Every structure is written in structure tokens, then in C-alpha cells.
Amino acid sequence: MTDQRENTDDLGESQVVVGTVLGAHGVHGHIRIRILSDVPDRFDSGKTLYLEGSPVLIESSSPAGTNLLLLKLEGINNQSTARALIGQELSAAAESSPPLPEGEYFHYQLMGMQVFTEEGENLGSISEIIVTGSNDVYVVSGAEREILLPAMAQVIRSVDIARMEMVVRLMDGLR
Predict the structure, then answer these.
(1) Which stretches of the chain drop beneath a pLDDT of 50?
(2) Which of 70, 90, 131, 143 could potentially form a cystine with 19 if both were Cys, beta carbons 3.0 to 4.6 Å apart?
(3) Distance separating alpha carbons of residues 155 and 89, to the nearest angstrom
(4) For residues 89 and 4, what is the distance between their CA atoms, to the nearest angstrom?
(5) Helix runs in 37-84, H state only
(6) pLDDT value, residue 13
(7) What is the pLDDT of residue 5?
(8) Who contacts 83 (Cβ-Cβ below 8 Å, separation ≥6)?
(9) Rounded to whole angstroms, how far apart are CA atoms 153 and 103?
(10) For residues 152 and 73, what is the distance between their CA atoms, to the nearest angstrom?
(11) Coil vs helix vs strand at 80
């Protein structure tokens, strides 16, 4: 699943980044966003999101292309106010994310995770996740180099969210 990285608001509540403001649309305060979430009803009218940590109510939403959406947020009523939001992130409460099946994780849960081989060698931490058509690829940044690990059961042996640790089996050619 692709809810992005986790952050914490002023009240200490966990949030996940679900979109980025790309631009203003029209003169009535609509914004165009890039969707960073697989949760289908995340952007429905009446839902609350957080814009740079402050709660905002979605008045309306409509598709604007692949992974793009037009949103009308309460209190954003003109083009100049909408333009000022360009580059800001939209977040949702982490607990609003649906539970995932065993062995599946949101991207924000994996980012920064320490990666070890089955022999205990620390390879570094997950610095990026590349979404491909068949399986994700984890970019593990270590002191000496980056390693690209396909998110496949043959490679990913265990994931411990609480300890922020992943154990992997390096197949030939991955090092």
C-alpha cells in the first residue's frame, strides 16, 4: 500500500502523508493534488485531512487524471489562497488507514527501517521505495553504497514494525 511517510502533529497524533498540492485550479480556490494513497475514500466530501498539520474539511473532490485530483477545501475560496498552498502536504490520521492483510505494510511503516542480512550484517536503512508494476523495490542506503531489494518473499524474510527492522536474504546479483 502506498500511504506515504508518517509524521506527528502538534497534539502528538500520528499522520500519514496522502497527497501533495501541485497547483491552483480556477478562481474559486480549488487545488490540484497528487494522490499518494491507495485508500479509495480518503478524499471523499466531508472527510477531514490535515494541511501542514491543520485540519481541513473536504467540500468536494473530482478526478483530474492518473493519480491527480481536484479538491475544494473549506476556507480556501480564491485562487491566490490556493496558490499559496503549492508544495504543501495533505495528511490523514494514521488510524484512518484500513488494516492490511498479514505481510503487507504501508510505505510510511517501512521508510527508515534498518535492514539486516540473515547473517546479521547491517545493510543500512530504507531511504526510498520505488513502485513498479509487479513489486515494489526498496532502496537501502548504507555507509558504502545503495542496494536495491525487490519486495518479494524470497528476499524479504521478516519485518518487525515495532523494532523498525527487516531481515533479508541477498540473492545472487543483489549486492
Answers:
(1) 1, 4-12
(2) 90
(3) 33
(4) 11
(5) 79-83
(6) 57
(7) 46
(8) 23, 24
(9) 9
(10) 39
(11) helix
